[in-house]
Amino acid sequence: MMVLAVESSGTVAAVAVANSDKLVGEFFLDHRRTHSQQLLPLLEGLLNSLDMELGDMDIFAVSNGPGSFTGLRIGISTVKALGQALDKPVVGVPTLDGLAYNLIPREGLICPIMDARREQVYTSIYRSGSSTHSIGAGLERLDEYMAIPVGALIEKLKAYNEPVLFNGDGVIPYWEIIREEMGEKAHRSSITHMMQRASSIACLALEMAHSGLTQNYMELVPFYLRKSQAEQKFGL
Known about the structure:
globular, seven-stranded mixed β-sheet, Nucleotidyltransferase, domain 5, 2 domains, about 240 residues, alpha/beta
């Protein structure tokens, strides 16, 4: 089974092609241009480099949130269009699951944190090396998807009383307070595993597809966790 995955939930624009045996290719950018400028050229460039066509794909996958409202809409619209045009199933993969997947097979607690602004983070708590396999490849989600103040997250993590490995774009702005409150129990990932990766979305999408968790393009929607500032301002 061949999957093409798109990642545009944050500052990263990335595409990847994978099958059940290997990662075939991945293009990754975390630069100044917008996803509307980057995403389709990345997709075209990757397929050309692999001498492949869109019709060679069995499924299309996308990081479906939480994340940037605009970025999510661009990625999801792209995958919905591909699914409709080629009559192929699609898979929406939670962004936080993809970030946590970056860090396996490291055993122990994993905590991806995305900067949600206003001193909040999008996050959840995971355990790698679990026998439960609730997410994939031994990755278990221990809590709900949350948009919470970073201080409240720290209190949740301190209750586990064990080391935690962090990644995501919330690490840099909040690392000082995390380290101050958690001390030696707080660890940050390497820069190669810090940000969202289309390859992780592809791998999780393959596991979901093998479990029958695909959708048609009309069913694919963003997962926002909270309302936009405009919706909150006007009570929508």
